[in-house]
């Protein structure tokens, strides 16, 4: 079964942001301008990323142990393989294969249905640490967002840094859901 898994200005107080988002499927104040990593080294971004936390979304419902694998293809595109373990970190594996393309610095378009050109989602890299070991990804509508890392766990300092970056981009980090890994 193909499942879409997208994995990608004005300051607003967390309280005001939470109140304005209550009862919606959006996790960010869309009036806050988003900033992306302008000097993203796409080749260093390739490889495996573990999903540390995400904003709840329908296409990852029941997923634990989530990883995303990015690789350059021969035609200059980027292949994306998202892996979900259903129900638990050692649950049955579901995979979704897609492709991505860089459309601007720090901005990619991702599709898990390549034959539908309009079924491409925004994937914006909002932050990456200098070692390319922790990344923060979001998209303008605020319906999705993730904290990713090269390992299944990160330090509390790295987590706080990632959450602060989400907040700078209008997200309400209190709505994040941690992802279990084995």
UniProtKB/TrEMBL annotation:
Where are the bilayer-spanning segments?
Answer: none
Q: Where is the signal peptide?
A: 1-21
Residue ranges annotated for the Lipocalin/cytosolic fatty-acid binding domain, each copy included:
40-180
Coarsely, its chief localization is: membrane
Which superkingdom does the taxonomy of this entry point to? Answer: Bacteria
Keywords assigned = Cell outer membrane, Lipid-binding, Lipoprotein, Membrane, Signal
Q: What does this protein do?
A: Involved in the storage or transport of lipids necessary for membrane maintenance under stressful conditions. Displays a binding preference for lysophospholipids.
Q: How does it assemble?
A: Homodimer.
Q: What is this protein called?
A: Outer membrane lipoprotein Blc
- Per the UniProt entry, what species is this protein from, by scientific name? Tropicimonas aquimaris
